[in-house]
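Retro notes (design track)

What went well: tokenization of the new backbones is finally stable.
What didn't: we kept losing track of which sequence belonged to which structure.
Fix going forward: every design gets posted as structure first, then sequence, in one message. First example under the new rule, 145 residues:
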């Protein structure tokens, strides 16, 4: 099976979906499911597109993410550190690690994300979590919730 790229970061017969069904803890981001498991390969490959100044949810979960930046540049909050990221960078998000992706460098940020088909639901920060994270002024200025 071949899923053709259309040249504009969309693919044939792949719907551009809302990033998440509910919530206001993200901005200007979409997702496309490019692969949804098959046979003995129970993984999902998704493409996320973050518009300039947009961001994903600040969250953590028990499952691992493997992310490949396919387009543009931005930043990621990973664990307790903010990193600049750009095309072709690979980011491993370990289990139970806070993370948030931002298109904060004046460009789109498009990335492939590989996860298990069966996975736990993301956890969002509580008021106590936010207070702890915001003790670092750089993190406080970066994160959005």
């Amino acid at each position: 099976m071949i899923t053709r790229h259309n040249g504009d970061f969309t693919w044939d017969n792949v719907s551009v979906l809302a990033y998440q069904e509910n919530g206001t803890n993200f901005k200007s981001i979409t997702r496309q499911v490019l692969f949804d498991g098959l046979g003995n390969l129970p993984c999902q490959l998704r493409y996320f597109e973050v518009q300039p100044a947009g961001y994903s949810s600040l969250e953590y979960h028990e499952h691992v993410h493997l992310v490949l930046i396919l387009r543009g540049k931005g930043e990621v909050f990973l664990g307790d550190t903010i990193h600049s990221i750009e095309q072709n960078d690979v980011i491993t998000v370990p289990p139970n690690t806070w993370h948030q992706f931002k298109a904060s460098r004046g460009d789109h940020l498009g990335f492939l994300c590989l996860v298990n088909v069966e996975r736990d639901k993301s956890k969002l920060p509580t008021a106590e979590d936010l207070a702890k994270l915001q003790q670092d002024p750089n993190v406080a200025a970066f994160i959005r919730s």
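Added context from the reviewer: The two ends are 39 Å apart (CA to CA).
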